[in-house]
Each structure stands twice: as structure tokens, then as C-alpha cells.
Write a structure and sequence with these properties.
This protein has 22 helices and 9 strands. It is α+β, with helices and mostly antiparallel strands. Keywords: Cell membrane, Membrane, Transmembrane, Transmembrane helix.
Length: 569
């Protein structure tokens, strides 16, 4: 173009369109999207009708706006139906499908819907079966896969087993390689043993705390809002007994007081009980030494009423059986010419409460129900609440709500042992999971030891690997040789660690050789409980980590070039 010549019209138009693009691009793209969605919707209708559908351009523009929403929905629904049909078709055997296409389509779609609804049930099983078949058939026992396919192939498993065990236990190996094999298996054994012992201690601690909490407190406690207490406890207990989950009930009175003896004093939580009813709801009799009956809480003619004190309270005050104590209630005071005097009552020590949980042994005291009513000023037959023992203590929260509904609801309310100790149990579960994650690092270190051991072995046996491949060994066979070596080390370490862990747990559980400070850990001995579910998870995790640790060096060995491997030697 010569200087001074006019700019062509097309270039001016492009500049103008470019400058005004922010104004017209959005409406233009919206119009194109409406037209395409309308055309796609008409194409779906034509497919359903089975014949072409003539539509003028004006119809496309009229359908444009609703087609923006209908066409993506129709495409998504169609894809979902095809997915369900394909899933059902693959699930149904051929002989189950009806000959007519419409019925077969409907049956496969229904089967697909059922498969999707039952997805959480069959998907984990299917994945486990597929993974197990792949690992066993492709890596460990190819004859299994060939038997399923009826594919007669070369049997090289004898060679794989012979060479793998030869490399592992050969007397001509260097001392370093033999030591690394033992160190790798020992690392796995140490990790498995530590995992089993620690998780068993965690499970035992959980069990002991639950038993002691449930042994001291009932599964469900029915209370009333306010300080008035429950009236007519016998009639309420009769209604509660009608619940199918309720096994026993017991009324109680609860309050705070101070016990004084020998110049010392301790704050206590007083619980007034009926001995026979309480023994059917909690494990109080077991924690007090299993006496045959009431140890003497009810006062006889001319006798002082009895009291059962927590073991730590009695030790702090230096009390022995038969000593007299004075219970003082600062909240229950009476006015005298000398001022306000707290209510005091004399009792005799008739039993010691030793649950093993410091929190309870240092705070609880038990007296007779009638004496507690009188001591805390409850009128008539009123009580603080009613304890309920259930058939299944793990269903305490829903059963507590059902019992309150049976009793008429507000102003009654209910507590249960799970909600009262929810923070404690959540902390124990979190601690157990954290310890599992921390200790599994030992297994990861042992897995790296297996990897390094196999890499050293592959480096040393390059020439032998090349000779085997030149003689006809397949790459899959070479891979399985080193996978077999890793599996032998992993299985040996897992078996040794499992045996050591179970033996150590048995010793700790039977002989109680480790003592704990009860004021810190709730209990005074180290509890141990072996849960076979945890053992299974530990063994599966260890074998999975070990299997993954063998893949890299085994794959490297299988990828060696036989010519280069022999030439390099």
C-alpha cells in the first residue's frame, strides 16, 4: 500500500468491531448459545420420534431461551439413563434379559437403579475382589489368571520361587546383604509389635474407663428442671419399667456436703440410695467388696446410720472401718440465737468405695435414701432423680428421649452416660487414631529398608538377571522374583511382630507389672485389651506398605536390558 492511500473499508470495520467488542460480544454469544441449544433440543425430539422434524428458523429463536435450561438438563438425564442402563446390562446375565428391546431396556434401567442404590454395599467388595485378583493373578500367581482365561502359558513359577528364595537365603551372599534382610524384617516386627501393644493399651483404657463410669453411674438418669426434685418416684419408675429396653430402676438423692473427722475435712458428693435397688442398676456392690447385703446404711434401733466413703477420702482423713464422721451441709442452714448453723449429722463408716478412678474415689459418699432426704430437706417421698439400667447401654441417648416422652416431657429431662462423658470418649478415640498414624511411621521406615535392600540386590545381581532373561525368563517373572523376596521379608516380620505383640499384651494383662498414678490416668494399672479388628487392620496396613515397597526395585529389575546387563559385567 502506497503512503497516503486511504485505509480499506474492511480494516476500518475490524478496528470498529474490536473497539466495540465489550458491547456486542455477550449478546452475540448468548444468541448463538440459544440457537445451538434449541437445535440440540429439536435433535433430541427427532431421535425420540424416529423421523425428521421440520421447524422454521423462527421456532428456533422462540425455543432459544427455554432451551438454555432444557437442553443441558435433557442431555444430563439422557446420560444418566444410559449410565444406569449400561450398569444394569452388565449386572444382568444374558439369559435374564427379555427378547423384546423395550422390556430389556426397562429391566436393565431398573437393575441399574438398584445397583446405584446399593452402591455402598457392593462397590467395596467389587474393588477388593478386583484388586485381589490383579495382585494375585498378575504379580504372585499368574497360573491363577491363566486358569481363569484357560490360557496355557509357560510355567515359570518354579523358577521364580527357586531363584527368589536362593537370592534371599543363599549362603554365598555377603554379610551386609544378609544383615539388611534381617534388619528390614526386624524393623517390620518392631513396628507391628509396637502398634499392637499401643493400640491394645488404648482399647483397654477405653474399656476400663467405660466399665468404671457405667459401674458408678446408671445408663440413663431421669431428672427434673429446678431444685424441687421428683415427686411420686414409684409411679414414675413403674412407667419407666414398661419400656422394652429398661431392666431396672433406682431412686436417688444427690447433693454436696462436707465430711469432717479427726480435725480434717473433705468436700464430697453425697448420694442417697436404696441399697437393693442401687445394686441392680450400678456396680456399687462390686466396688465396695461385694457384701451379701446392705452393709449398714440403714440405721437400726439405737444405731448410727452408716456411710460409704470413697477410698481416697478415707485415706486423706485417716479413717478406718467403724470410725465416726460428721456430714455438714452448708446449704441447709437453720437460724439460731447464735446465728446461722449448718445442718450436721453423725454417721459411722461402714464401707469403702474403690472404683479405681481417682475422680470418683476422691469425691463420692453413699448414705441411705431416707437419711439423704432428711439431710437435704426434701419433703415427702421426693428424690433427686431415677436411675435406669438398659439392655443395651450403647442405645442410651435415643432411649433416654423415649423415656422422657413416656413420662410426659417437660419439666422432666434425662441424662445418659454417653453424653455426660462425650468429650472423654472423643479424646480417647482421637488419641488412638493419632497413635496409629504416628506408629505406622515405623512401618514406613521398615518399608524403605525393604526398598533399599532390594535395590542393592538388583544392583548386585544385574548379570544374573540378564542371563535369566536371555534364557527365556519374562520381565513379569523377574518382577515376581523380587516381589517374592519383599513379601517373604514382610510376612516374616509381620508374623514375628504379631507374636511378640500378643505375648507382651498377655504378660501386661495378666501380671499388671506397670502401675499408674491414679490421680492422673483415672485408673491405677495399665489396662490391655486385644481387639482382633485392630490386629487385622495392622496386618493389612503392614502388608500393603510392604507390597508397595517392593514394586519399585522389582520394576527396575524387570526393565533391565539383558544385553546391557551382561555387557556391564
Amino acid at each position: 500500500m502506497t503512503p497516503g492511500a486511504p485505509v480499506p473499508h474492511s480494516r476500518r470495520a475490524r478496528w470498529l468491531l474490536g473497539l466495540t467488542a465489550p458491547i456486542w460480544v455477550a449478546p452475540f454469544l448468548l444468541a448463538q448459545a440459544m440457537r445451538l441449544c434449541a437445535a440440540g433440543l429439536l435433535a433430541l425430539v427427532e431421535e425420540l420420534r424416529g423421523r425428521p422434524l421440520a421447524a422454521p428458523p423462527a421456532v428456533l429463536w422462540l425455543l432459544g431461551l427455554p432451551a438454555l435450561a432444557l437442553f443441558p438438563a435433557a442431555v444430563g438425564l439422557r446420560g444418566l439413563l444410559y449410565l444406569l442402563y449400561g450398569l444394569g446390562r452388565s449386572a444382568l446375565p444374558l439369559r435374564w434379559r427379555p427378547p423384546r428391546r423395550g422390556r430389556a431396556l426397562a429391566l436393565c434401567t431398573v437393575a441399574g437403579l438398584l445397583a446405584v442404590a446399593l452402591l455402598p454395599l457392593w462397590l467395596p467388595v467389587a474393588l477388593a475382589l478386583w484388586l485381589g485378583r490383579w495382585v494375585v493373578g498378575r504379580l504372585l500367581v499368574p497360573e491363577f489368571a491363566r486358569a481363569l482365561r484357560r490360557d496355557p502359558g509357560p510355567r515359570e513359577e518354579p523358577m521364580v520361587v527357586f531363584v527368589g528364595l536362593r537370592y534371599l537365603f543363599s549362603a554365598r551372599q555377603t554379610a551386609l546383604h544378609s544383615a539388611t534382610h534381617y534388619y528390614a524384617a526386624g524393623g517390620i516386627a518392631l513396628g507391628v509389635c509396637a502398634l499392637i501393644v499401643v493400640l491394645s493399651v488404648m482399647s483397654g483404657f477405653d474399656r476400663e474407663v467405660r466399665e468404671r463410669i457405667v459401674g458408678t453411674n446408671a445408663h440413663v438418669i431421669v431428672l427434673r428442671f429446678g431444685q424441687q426434685g421428683l415427686a411420686r418416684p414409684d409411679s414414675l419408675a413403674a412407667i419407666i419399667a414398661g419400656h422394652p429396653e429398661a431392666l431396672a430402676t433406682a431412686p436417688f438423692v444427690f447433693g454436696k456436703a462436707m465430711v469432717s473427722a479427726g480435725g480434717g475435712a473433705e468436700g464430697v458428693m453425697i448420694k442417697g440410695i436404696d441399697w437393693e435397688a442401687e445394686s441392680s442398676v450400678t456396680a456399687l456392690a462390686r466396688f465396695t467388696g461385694d457384701p451379701p447385703g446392705d452393709p449398714g446404711l440403714k440405721p437400726g434401733p439405737g444405731r448410727t446410720p452408716g456411710v460409704i466413703l470413697g477410698k481416697q477420702i478415707a485415706e486423706n482423713l485417716g479413717l478406718y472401718m467403724g470410725d465416726e464422721v460428721i456430714l455438714v451441709s452448708p446449704a441447709e442452714t437453720r437460724r439460731t440465737p447464735l446465728g446461722f448453723i449448718p445442718r450436721m449429722r453423725r454417721f459411722v463408716l461402714v464401707g469403702l468405695f474403690a472404683s479405681g478412678m481417682y475422680e470418683y474415689d476422691a469425691s463420692l459418699a453413699f448414705i441411705d435414701l431416707a437419711e439423704a432426704r432428711s439431710f437435704f430437706g426434701l419433703e415427702g417421698d421426693r428424690v433427686t432423680g431415677i436411675e435406669v439400667r438398659l439392655r443395651d447401654m450403647n442405645r442410651a441417648p435415643p432411649v433416654a428421649d423415649e423415656i422422657v416422652a413416656m413420662l410426659g416431657g417437660f419439666p422432666l429431662r434425662a441424662n445418659n452416660w454417653i453424653e455426660l462423658n462425650a468429650n472423654l470418649f472423643a479424646w480417647m478415640r482421637t488419641e488412638k487414631r493419632a497413635m496409629f498414624v504416628i506408629l505406622i511411621m515405623i512401618i514406613l521406615v521398615a518399608g524403605f529398608s525393604i526398598t533399599s535392600t532390594l535395590i542393592m540386590l538388583v544392583t548386585e545381581k544385574r548379570r544374573e538377571i540378564g542371563i535369566l532373561m536371555s534364557m527365556g525368563a519374562t520381565r513379569a517373572g523377574i518382577l515376581r522374583i523380587f516381589v517374592l523376596e519383599g513379601w517373604v521379608m514382610a510376612c516374616a516380620g509381620t508374623a514375628l511382630g504379631t507374636g511378640l505383640g500378643l505375648a507382651l499384651c498377655h504378660v501386661l494383662e495378666r501380671y499388671k507389672i506397670i502401675r499408674l498414678p491414679a490421680d492422673i490416668y483415672f485408673i491405677d494399672t495399665l489396662p490391655v485389651r486385644v481387639e482382633w479388628g485392630d490386629i487385622g487392620i495392622i496386618v493389612a496396613s503392614v502388608l500393603a506398605i510392604s507390597a508397595l515397597s517392593t514394586l519399585l526395585p522389582a520394576w527396575k529389575a524387570a526393565q533391565l536390558d539383558p544385553v546391557e546387563a551382561i555387557r556391564s559385567e
